[in-house]
Amino acid sequence: MTNVFQQRTTELQRRMADDKIDAFLLADPDSIFFFSGCFGYLGMEWDRATLLLVPRSGAPTLVTPLMESELMHNQSWVEDIRDWVDGVDGEWMKHVDAFFATHKSRRIMFENHKTPPKVTEALRHAAGGAELVEGNPLISKMRMIKSPEEIAIMRQAGQVAVAMGKAGKATIAEGVPEYEVALAVIAGGTRKAAELLQNSDAADYVSPTIYNLQIMQSGRHTCMVHRRSTVKRIAKGDPVYLCFCGIANFRHFKLGFDREFFVGSVTDEQAKTYETTVKAQQAALALVKPGAVAEDVNAAAEEVYRSAGFGLSYRTGRGIGYSFLEDPQLKKGDKTKLQAGMAFAVDGGITVKGRYGTRIGDSIIVTEKGFDYLTEFPRQLTVL
User: Fold this and answer.
1) How far apart are CA 374 and CA 236, in angstroms?
2) What is the 3-state secondary structure (H, E, C) of the chain?
């Protein structure tokens, strides 16, 4: 993978030259990984900056806390790694100042909405009177179409997500606390990830352990889309919603995946609502192919909701990859034409206020003829 990260950086510099950009400061961990191949466990929430500074030509500079410098040297192809220590000799800001003192710049790119304010402040100071240019569109275009190698890893991420779904489904039963289902999901996904990491080039630095809080609800709490697992015990007749967005992650790829089950019984109304939810998702997916317009895919799902007498809930889909949200999005107003190699999380969702909700979600890859599921798992109404 080393050559891949270096090749991406070379391509970034080519595009910078085309746009007459002299330097690019990267502070977003996902973007830093995309170009350098390295990832740390610190960040500005700990007041510890990791930055990648890329000149229009020549070698980039990686700035890292001293305690993570050994990790960075082992992960990355970047040779110029500058470390710093808390409270000593200007910390990380001295390296930013030194870089821009060496690389005189008139136009500097940075990802404005992904750069912490403290880093932006340091950049403005170091840049002097240079023009600061929003760089997110450039990065977004580079990440939008996944390579065959990236798609292969995303397919493995789909296997991890499906293993999580199977483990959660097997644990759901009357009387079981929600948190026990979440623990089973974590264990199921972790074991599958560990299996896939065996003998891989990422095994030394990527943890298989699934983390982040499980999004799940049962009973009437399924109205609250993003409530986390609690000590509530699952009851007969409960719908149980499992959302794996945020935890269906493998080798830096972040998928979307949602399933819902019913415990012991399901009412006719709930069944009809659930089936409408699946129909809306499938109507959207039926349009997915190269050349389709993103907002038209969303409109197909919206028409199903309207025809069934329901209002709108949320966007039909979002681009996925190294970040939880990438471009384009399957929502009203996004006129992007789909291309083979794009990846999406495609959802269906209905909330009956105060009573229950029904939801479904899958990750897909756009192919030359349509799409492939990354999360192949039953979608029919299931009573456990």
Assistant:
1) 32
2) CHHHHHHHHHHHHHHHHHCCCCEEEECCHHHHHHHHCCCCCCCHHHCCCCEEEEECCCCCEEEEEHHHHHHHHHHCCCCEEEEECCCCCCCCHHHHHHHHHHCCCCEEEECHHHCCHHHHHHHHHHHCCCEEEECHHHHHHHHHCCCHHHHHHHHHHHHHHHHHHHHHHHHCCCCCEHHHHHHHHHHHHHHHHHHHHCCCCCCCCCCCCCCCCCEEEEHHHHHCCCCECCCCECCCCCEEEEECCCCCEECCEECCCEEEEECCCCCHHHHHHHHHHHHHHHHHHCCCCCCCEHHHHHHHHHHHHHHCCCCCCCCCEEECECCCCEEEEECCCCCCECCCCCEEEEEEEEEECCCEEEEEEEEEEECCCCEEECCCCCCCCCEC
Region of residue 219 (phi > 0: left; psi between -120 and 50: alpha; otherwise: beta):
left
Pull the structure tokens for residue 355: 């009573």
Cα–Cα distance, 209 to 185 (Å, whole number): 11
What pLDDT is recorded for position 2?
59
pTM above 0.85, yes or no: yes
In the predicted model, what is the mean pLDDT of residues 1-9? 86
Q: Do residues 172 and 185 make contact, with C-beta atoms less than 8 angstroms apart? A: no
Mean pLDDT of 24-33: 97
Residues 220-274: tens digit of each pLDDT: 999 999 999 999 999 999 999 999 999 999 999 999 999 999 999 999 999 999 9
Using an 8 Å Cβ cutoff, are 351 and 225 in contact?
Answer: yes
pLDDT (tens digit per residue) in 80-132: 999 999 999 999 999 999 999 999 999 999 999 999 999 999 999 999 999 99
Cα(323)–Cα(34) distance, integer angstroms = 10
- The confidence band for 200, taking pLDDT boundaries of 50, 70 and 90, is confident
State yes or no: pLDDT of 147 exceeds 70. yes
Distance between CA 177 and CA 180 in Å, rounded?
Answer: 6
Beta bridge partners of 375: none
Q: Which residues contact 100 (CB under 8 A, 6 or more apart)?
A: 23, 108, 126, 127, 128, 130
